[in-house]
């Protein structure tokens, strides 16, 4: 399912009509396809402050086959040499005065950015600063990147990664993700890395080869897309959903060569049944994606206990119970496991008539943050993904006005696709994402809600 207006606006007649009427024309986003190059053009890498990452970034990009230019080369490029990406190493900012060099580098480089290009800023975490001036300069990166993301056009995105000292080895995976087509609908986001043992020699096309992955709520929509992308990346997927969705679940599992497992995740024995299945059939699990979720919308003053309790049971309590059971079992959850929990933009910004849903999804973020140290001690990770407006069969049934407004109020002027959520989850599931832990990544096109 695609965003109909984006498709129309980029057709021959649609392009003419939108120009005549002065209507927005959302760009067709560059999305990942196996085998495609990391970037469709060269990248320019610059520094602000005494950056320590420029050489490492350049090495990763060249290893990926990307042409790396210096700022001087980019400034003198001809009109035919558009940039695929702009990367600024802003580590080492000492104070607000150093931010001028960020402007001096970014302004001319961004002018040369091609459609669906990428801007990525690397910086030190403000929390690690030695002085108020240094903290101010580092925190300024937040406002800088979010504003750049709102200025870019043509499907281009801007994001930032905070890289504390000691976490340099964790950078390669996030660097490739944010520059690739996998991050098409991730815009205006900031991620903080942690030191970790990151494996090398990962297969770029099949980074999950040999892994076993569980996806709940896999019978349709975003869950089915997650299952497909994980399978494409090499995982054997155990697709989980309620018995009532058994036919659709089996169809998804058969399509990807996975396993269908019918389970009501709110049942008292759900965790033990899942663990028994994983132990006996698959010898354990490497990736668990908590995707299953429901809505039971009503204004808080009109909401009955059944609506409240059912949403909490599926969206939050089941994730807590299953994850705790996996942690308690010494054999099933692999030491380098990846847990990815689906939250929501509603859990960050709130939403009228969704107090139960928003509370449950905010709870997921708190759960992930609290569990991160325990997972790190096991060389494992737990993270959350918070989708914004995603074009699905469910959103297609919304009133047309609500649907169109909801899908346009973001920097990319369009709704995301289920595959955009799936790509982010697949990236967080990779061995190369070992340094991403306790984070929440919004897949929302930089939605104006909660931004």
From TrEMBL:
GO terms for molecular function: oxidoreductase activity, acting on the CH-OH group of donors, NAD or NADP as acceptor. Gene3D superfamilies: NAD(P)-binding Rossmann-like Domain (3.40.50.720). Residues 211-393 form the Ketoreductase domain. It holds the Pfam family adh_short_C2. PROSITE patterns: ADH_SHORT. Belongs to the short-chain dehydrogenases/reductases (SDR) family. This is 3-oxoacyl-[acyl-carrier protein] reductase.
């Amino acid at each position: 399912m695609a965003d109909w207006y984006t498709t129309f606006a980029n057709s021959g007649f649609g392009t003419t009509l939108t120009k005549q009427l002065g209507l927005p024309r959302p760009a067709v986003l560059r999305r990942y396809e196996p085998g495609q190059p990391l970037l469709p053009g060269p990248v320019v890498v610059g520094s602000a402050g005494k950056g320590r990452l420029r050489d490492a970034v350049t090495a990763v990009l060249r290893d990926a086959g990307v042409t790396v230019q210096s700022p001087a080369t980019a400034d003198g490029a001809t009109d035919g040499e558009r940039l695929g990406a702009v990367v600024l190493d802003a580590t080492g900012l000492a104070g607000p005065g150093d931010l001028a060099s960020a402007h001096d580098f970014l302004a001319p480089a961004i002018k040369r950015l091609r459609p669906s290009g990428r801007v990525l800023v690397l910086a030190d975490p403000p929390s690690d600063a030695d002085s108020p001036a240094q903290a101010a300069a580092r925190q300024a990166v937040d406002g800088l990147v979010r504003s750049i993301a709102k200025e870019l056009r043509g499907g281009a995105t801007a994001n930032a990664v905070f890289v504390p000292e000691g976490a340099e080895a964790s950078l390669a995976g996030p660097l490739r993700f944010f520059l690739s087509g996998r991050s098409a609908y991730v815009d205006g986001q900031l991620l903080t890395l942690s030191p970790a043992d990151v494996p090398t020699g990962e297969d770029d096309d099949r980074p999950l080869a040999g892994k076993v992955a569980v996806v709940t709520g896999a019978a349709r929509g975003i869950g089915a897309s997650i299952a497909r992308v994980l399978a494409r990346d090499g995982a054997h997927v155990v697709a989980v959903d309620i018995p009532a969705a058994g036919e659709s679940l089996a169809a998804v599992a058969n399509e990807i060569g996975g396993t269908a497992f019918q389970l009501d995740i709110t049942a008292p024995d759900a965790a033990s049944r899942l663990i028994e299945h994983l132990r006996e059939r698959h010898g354990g699990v490497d990736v668990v994606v908590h995707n299953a979720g429901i809505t039971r919308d009503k204004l808080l003053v009109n909401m009955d206990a059944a609506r409240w309790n059912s949403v909490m049971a599926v969206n939050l309590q089941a994730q807590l119970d299953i994850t705790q059971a996996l942690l308690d079992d010494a054999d099933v959850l692999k030491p380098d496991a990846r847990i990815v929990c689906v939250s929501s933009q509603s859990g960050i910004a709130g939403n009228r008539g969704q107090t139960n849903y928003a509370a449950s999804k905010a709870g997921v973020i708190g759960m992930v943050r609290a569990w991160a140290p325990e997972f790190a001690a096991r060389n494992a990770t737990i993270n959350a993904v918070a989708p914004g407006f995603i074009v699905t069969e469910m959103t297609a049934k919304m009133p047309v006005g609500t649907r169109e407004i909801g899908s346009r109020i973001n920097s990319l002027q369009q709704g995301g696709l289920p595959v955009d959520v799936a790509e982010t989850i697949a990236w967080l599931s990779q061995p190369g994402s070992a340094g991403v832990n306790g984070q929440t990544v919004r897949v929302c096109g930089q939605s104006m809600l909660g931004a």
